[in-house]
Amino acid sequence: MTVVVSGEFSFEFYKLSLQWPPSTCSNPMKTCRGKIPDNFTIHGLWPQHADDTPVRPYEEDRRCTNKTPKTADDITPQLFGRDMLKKLDDNWPDLFKRSNLGFWKGEWAKHGMCSDYPTDPKSYFSETLKLAKKYNPLNQLKGK
What we know:
Blueprint: E1 2-6, E2 13-19, H1 21-24, E3 41-48, H2 77-80, H3 82-91, H4 100-110, H5 121-134, H6 137-142
Antiparallel strand pairs: 1-2, 2-3
Helix pairs in contact: 3-5
């Protein structure tokens, strides 16, 4: 599922990508780790250009922001705090072989550094959690 949200910098909108783990994990080419969640989980929040092409990662094109972003090394459990870390673990897990933290670092490097929050990764992840809750397809089906 994809939801479109307006952005502020050198892109037109965000694409919120949610995944249904039972379907994602049914791919015989991939092996999911641990218990498969039975709720939609976040795959990412991706800045997109008007033609729906992704904004290139900061390391490939530094023109995406006029600020020097925090690096993936700045994504640590201490950055989030216990409550937010639990929300991230529950709602934005790495379904495959990496750790959740490794997955979040990768998402930050590829998408977050060129978002509206290049110097504030905690807000990038927090806003993504809020959007995922707001646009959760299960809640939409239940009329919430």
